[in-house]
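2024-03-11 09:14:02 DEBUG pipeline.ingest accepted 1 chain
2024-03-11 09:14:02 DEBUG pipeline.ingest length=427
2024-03-11 09:14:03 DEBUG pipeline.predict start
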Amino acid sequence: MSHTPYPSSYYAASANPAPIRETLGSDVEADVCIVGAGYTGLSTALFLLEHGFRVVILEAAKVGFGASGRNGGQIVNSYSRDLDAVERSAGSDEARLIGAMAFEGGRIIRERVARYNIECDLKNGGVFAAFNPKQMHHLETQKALWERYGYDQLEMLDHNGIRNVVACERYTGGMLDHSGGHLHPLNLALGEAAAVESLGGVIYEQSPAIRIDRGSSPRVHTERGQVTAKFVVVAGNAYLGGLVPELAAKSMPCGTQVIATEPLDPELAAKLLPQDYCVEDCNYLLDYYRLSADNRLIYGGGVVYGARDPADIDSIIRPKMLKTFPQLRGIKTEFAWTGNFLLTLSRLPQVGRLGDNIYYSQGCSGHGVTYTHVAGKIIAEALRGQAERFDAFASLPHYPFPGGQTFSAPFSALGALYYSLRDRVGF
């Protein structure tokens, strides 16, 4: 079997040491077999192991190979569509439960980091930056909405306030989420994997699942072995491929691009982001950025529908960075990479069961760092017989993309073009 390494990225280059894990080469048994060693799979495994389950994880490449190890590293609360969309899509009881979970993911991450001593450069504070009065009004509405669910960590930033946290002249104002934050995403995944193994969980790398036999005792096959379990959790997201056709039909992998500069002079870094918060803007096709632990600016943005890799990532992202921070003209880009996330038509997560014993969560739609940790908790709750919160998410409708898998990418790109034009003209 060929060995799939991490793709080149700043995160891979600065990852903490990790063991070389075995490839599944025999037939094994477990209470739960999890497909995918990203955040969803690792979070699920930890909650299950903490309650005495025997857990095996099958990973096609390496821990955190997909979006979990390549994302912008930002802890952003709520979901890709906000709670007003949840209220329109779910019943009142379900919306209440989903709304209460919108701010839980960050708490889970911080608890995991503390309990298992995970070194992932965790920092507090995240900013939503507005370009115009319309976006400021949206942030004020969002603050009121989140506060209705009991969340009190938001602070509005006026024209002067935004300049105290980011040295950019483009913003009208913004909103600071004190319990937002940022971290090294691959090191978080590696730390969670080590925690899984410390509790007796087993992770097989380079072991892609090629078939799932459904039934009373589901069996997950790899090229050289198989896992027989009481339950299967499908947590592959954008890297699941066609393993479960009914899931692929209602989601679409999309690519996003990120660059990291050379290390900045500490004085320059402190001028760009004086409080060391992470930032994302309020556009539909948004940009996001933050400082790494060694003072690189990590800057991301853009979406490629259908998850094709652009030929020159730096030529796409660097102009965006320089528009935000012209101070960085002449600073070198040292890393440029892309990664896939899984988009749903509603931009809300898809959660459910296939039969009685195959569970899944997918479709974070670019908002997965916090949600995936909640997903692991509610899946574990459901396997322990406490399914109320899982069922609330499962009640959200799962829409197919217009045009099916063949035309979903161009239709989505046209929709994104429309919204990006709205962003540019400010209406």
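2024-03-11 09:14:41 DEBUG pipeline.report Residues 217 and 230 are 6 Å apart (CA to CA).
2024-03-11 09:14:41 DEBUG pipeline.predict end
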